[in-house]
Amino acid sequence: MYRILIVEDDKTIADTLTEHLCKWGYDAKAVDDFDQVMEIFTAFDPQLVLMDIVLPFYNGYHWCSQIRSISKVPVIFLSSASDNMNIIMAVNMGGDDFIAKPFDLDVVVAKIQAMLRRTYSFQGQVSILEHRGAVLNLGDASLTFEGQKTELTKNDFRILEVLMSQKGKVVSREDLMKKLWNDDCFIDDNTLTVNVNRLRRKLDEIGLNDFIATKKGIGYMVGEEQ
């Protein structure tokens, strides 16, 4: 589920966008404190930002430049100030697209979908894997859950990559071991158990309890929704 942060001070528009995007399966959140935009952005860790230009305290250009200093997340500007100068300014400040108000909600969704495809996919290859709110980024081998990014070891990442790419299916211990270690290298079967148990403890610490299920005598799979 992609997370979308809405930075819009018109509560009617913000609430309408939030409700509509949630219906499309996105995790949408509207900023409610416009003096704390960066703090909210960091905590929510969105995959896309919808940004108004005219805002309390600082304008959308300011917040876009602040976001750009720490993230490459796509930013789509929303504004009734849709003259060429504002569109050029939005792009120059790091914006990726511009939607003029008033807008059609389905057009907004279409632009969001296109932006997410371009940003997080390449030639049909998925660059993130998501399950139960946990997002595994295949680009930087990180795991994010509820706005918190978790450090992963090489084996942590490979285990999650295999299991999350085949969620709903049991992955045999043999297949996991082949992914983790070279075929021509003998590894004690207990080594896999140690690695999985260590990863489970790390997942438990961030609230992902029972994320990896054991299918006795067969292998592992990512756990069902709790």
Automatic annotation (TrEMBL):
GO terms for molecular function: phosphorelay response regulator activity; transcription cis-regulatory region binding. Residues 126-224 bind DNA. It comes from the Bacteria. The modification 4-aspartylphosphate is found at D52. Residues 3-116 form the Response regulatory domain. InterPro entries: CheY-like_superfamily (IPR011006), OmpR/PhoB-type_DNA-bd (IPR001867), Sig_transdc_resp-reg_C-effctor (IPR016032), Sig_transdc_resp-reg_receiver (IPR001789), WalR-like (IPR039420), WH-like_DNA-bd_sf (IPR036388). One of its GO terms (cellular component) is protein-DNA complex. Residues 126-224 form the OmpR/PhoB-type domain. Keywords: DNA-binding, Phosphoprotein, Transcription, Transcription regulation. GO terms for biological process: regulation of DNA-templated transcription. May play the central regulatory role in sporulation. It may be an element of the effector pathway responsible for the activation of sporulation genes in response to nutritional stress. Spo0A may act in concert with spo0H (a sigma factor) to control the expression of some genes that are critical to the sporulation process. This is Stage 0 sporulation protein A homolog.
